[in-house]
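hey all, quick one before standup. I had two proteins in the batch that finished overnight and I want to keep them in one place so we stop losing track of which output belongs to which input. First protein below, input sequence then structure tokens straight from the run.
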Amino acid sequence: MRLLVISCFAALAATAGELPDAYRVIVQRNIFNANRVPAPTVRPDSVALPVPPPPSPPTVTVALTGVLVIDGEATALLSSTDPELSGERRVGDALGAWRVASILTTGISLVDEAGEQALLPVGKAIARTGDQPWRLSEERPAYSRPAQSSGPSSPSTSAASSTSSSSSSTAAGAGESGGSEADILKRMMERRQRELNR
């Protein structure tokens, strides 16, 4: 029965010239035709495959979250997308290709190997994509935990963590009263400036 249906469609195709798409392959590859030729194949080397674009280099962002002063010794608190650049830094410590030259309550001064200086204010960030130079950025990085040391924590580390916990709870409390993160940070910086000017 099936052979009869196929022969009928083949005969119809020869006379009418049009077949439903589902049966067109029967005419094109008729197994009963002694003069049939194989279906044309596309060689893989003749097909141009799209070349995927190279992945964009990652952007590394380092933000100065705050400055902590205990017993006259200043410590910069940094958050970064690179865990090696997150954590605490004191004067003379390395920060990637930079070295911390000075720490003030308003920001830190960085010096690179060539002797060029850069100022990073509290609440601001610097960013670099690939091998491009560092630039001041408005973007705040998602927090990345600093590399943990295996030794016992020092008193300054404990103080820093308790201070950052209290400041984050203060920021959370301020966030509940309304405003975006940038507005809250701006209000906190203005309040700090008023306290310094007293």
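OK second protein, same deal, sequence then tokens:
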Amino acid sequence: MNIALMSHDHKKELMVQFCIAYCGVLSKHTVCATNTTGRLVAEATGLPVRLFLSHAHGGSQQIGARIAYNEIDMVLFFSDPQSSDLDPDLKYINQMCDQYNIPFATNAATAEILIHGLERGDLASCSPMGTRWARCWTGTACARFNLLSISSKKVDFFFKMRDTLTCIVGEKLEPRYFRKGAEEGKRYTVDDMQFNAVAVALKS
């Protein structure tokens, strides 16, 4: 699962402490973050963190674009209710997560619920993409379905499995695009099949 980390300036230390506390869970997934938050987390935890630009230079837009392309599965954005500097970024990420049905936490308590659910293997999604998004690409209605499959901690001891399935279908359930990303044991493979222009648009 791809987890994006973001935080307001006064919440960066809280984000670091949160990631230290749940380093064991986060280490089993792919973590990305805006620049300053990511560097602090990486230095404190030793986790590999993919860094985007800072908020001021468009990092929020980079993460938002990856949400739209189904490359982000969860967002933790620790916000400072007393801060107004990054309110447009917070609103933008919130809208993107709502639009694409992405789990989103703005405080440590909610983030803990998501992380515990992730650890138990509870998180899976089946989210309709909606007509408006599809018409931007093809002029016809379509829906997207996502499914995340995670093996339990006991099974991980013998064989680790993380599968992400993405399927786009038309109004009559005709296939448009299929993608499977599979982490099985020490191997990670991606299989995809394109049926028409919507898949080409997704990959461009």
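Flagging for whoever picks this up: The chain is about 40% helix and 30% strand. The two ends are 22 Å apart (CA to CA).
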